[in-house]
Give the backbone structure.
Amino acid sequence: MSKLDWLGATLLGAALAGGCGDDSSATSDASATDVSTETDADPSTTAGASATDPATTEGTSGTATAGPTDASTDATDSTSDPTDATDSTSDPTDATTGDPSETTGAPAVCGDGLVEGDEACDDGPDNADDAACTSQCTIAACGDGFVLAGVEECDAGPDNADDAACTSQCAAAYCGDGLVWAGTEDCDDADELDNGCTNECAEQRARELAVGHFHVCAILSGGAVKCWGANHLGYLGLGDTERRGDEPDEMGANLPFVDLGADAVAVKLEAGSGNTCAVLEGGALKCWGRNDYGQLGLGHAENVGDEPGEMGDDLPTVDLGAGVKVVDVAAGHYHACALLEGGDVKCWGHDSGGQLGLGGSPQACGNTDCRGVVPEDMGDNLPTVDLGAGQKAIAITAGFSASCALLEGGDVKCWGAGLTTGQGDGVANVGDDPGEMGDNLPPIVLGAPALDVHAGIGHVCARLDGLGVKCWGGGAQGALGSGSLANIGVAPGEMAALDPVDLGGLTDAALTSGRWTSCALSEDGAIKCWGYNNYGQLGLGDLLDRGDEPGEMGANLPLVDLDAIAVQVDTSFHATCALLEDGAIKCWGRNLNGELGQGDTVDRGGQPGQMGANLPTIKLYSETW
C-alpha cells in the first residue's frame, strides 16, 4: 500500500470513530487482546503510540497498533512498500529472484537487459538492429528483414533473393558482384575481361551459327545477327556486295549487324548457297541474298540485300499463308523449306528434282521449274507437303536437290533426287510427279526411331535412338563414313542392312552435313568429322579425306582439337564452324572469301599446328572478343 493509500485509510478510520459519538480518550483503556476490533482506530490516538511514525507502534507494550502497519500483517504484505527489501518485485536484479517472468508470470520485455522467455538476446534499453541483436531480441541474420548496421547493406526478409533490390548475401547489387540481377543484368562474371559479359553486365555471345556454302552467319545475344564471308549477291544482307572477314578491321565492332527491322529478334538461322533465312520471334520468316529461283519466297526473282534500302522494315516477311507461324527453316542449294507451327511443311524455290514435294506442275521459272518467283506462288496458294495421313513433322533439312522431314514417332521421309531418298529404287526422283508423296512415300528403313536428320549435297545422315548414326546417298569423298566410295540406299534391301557409322565410342551425337562432309558432336562437346577434306575442313591437320577407305573410322578417326567444349557444329561446302561453350566461334577449312572471319584469306585446319589453341576465335564484338 502506498503512503497516500495509508493516509486515506487512517483518516477514514478516524472519521468513523468520531462519527459514533465516542470519546476518543476512551481508547486508552481498551483491551489489546482483540486486534480485530482495533483495525479501524486512528493510530495517532493509540495510547503510547507516536502519531508521527506508524511504524513505531510495533514497540508499544500491551497495545495493538491499528492500521496497515500492524506487525501481524506487515511481514506478509508484499506490496506494502516497493522499496522494502523483502518485496520480490523491488529489484529485478536481485540474485534471489531469478527470471522475473518465471516468478511473477510477467511476460519477457525485449530491451530490459535480460534474456528472458523465448528471447535469443537482449541489448538492454538501447536495443537496436545491429550485428549483435535485433530490436526484436533475435540473433541478427541475413534474411530476417532487418538491416544490420555496419554489416548489411540491405535485407529483403525471408524471400531475400539475388536481384537488383538486394542480393541473397544482404549486399547492395552491382555489376561485377558475380550475381545476375533479375531483370536488370544479362550476365555477371565478376571480372574485367572483354569476353561474353561486358563490364556493364551486358551479354555478348553467339547463340546459334549457320554455315552457308561461302558465308557464315550467327545469332548473337538479344537475337541480333551478323554475317561474314562471300557477299557478291547480297548474302550478308548489308546493302552492298563487299566481302567481310577477308581483310583486317572488318570484324568485331566494325562488322555491321544485319538489319532485320525494328524490334526484330532472330530465334533460328539457316544459310544456303548464297541465301540466308532467319525465323523471328513471333513466327515470321525473312530471307535475303541470292534469289534467281525464287528461293527467298518473295514472289519475284531479284536478289535482296545487295543494295541499300532492301533490308530492315523494307524486307518483307515470307508469305506462307494467313495466320501461319514458322518454327524452323532449312535452306538447300537453291530452295528452302519451312516447318510450320502444328507440324506442316512448305517448300519453295528450285524444283528440278521434286525437292519441293509438290508432285509436279509448279510455276515456270525460266527453263527450270520453281515456286516463289511470282506473288501467286506463295501464301495460301503454296501447298503444304503431303507427308501422309495424320503425319506431322518435328524437324526438317534440305540438301542440294532433296528435302527430308523427321516425323513424330521417329520416322524419316525424304523426297527429291533419288540418290538421297533412301527408297532403294535406283536414282528415280520422288516428289516431282503426282502420286509419289503422302502415304505413297514410305518412311526410310533405319532400324530405330530417328532423333535428328541432316542432308548434305548428295547424302543424308540420321542419329538414331540407341543405334548411333546412319548415312545414305552418295558416297563420294567418304561422306557416308562407310570405308568406301559406294553409294548406299539406291538398291533394294540396302537400307535394311545399313550399318551405323563407326564413331569409336562417340555416342548420342548431334549431326551436321555439308557438301560431302559430315560431323558428329557428342554430349560432352567432342567433335569428329569425316568425308571431304581438301581444304582442311575436317580439322585434322592434313588434307586427307576420311571414311573413304577401310580403317579410317572408329578409334582411328581423331577428335577435332578445339581446345574448348563445343555446343554446336555446322559444315557446308568447304568450311566447318563450331559454337563453343563460352559463346565464341571457331571456323576452319577454306577461307577464300573470309568465311573463317580472321581478316585474311588463309585456310586453316589442313596443316599441323593450326588447330587447338592456335586456332583463333572469331571476333564479333571487339578486337579481342
User: Anything to note?
Assistant: Confidence is low (pLDDT under 50) at residues 1-103. The first helix runs from residue 3 to 19.
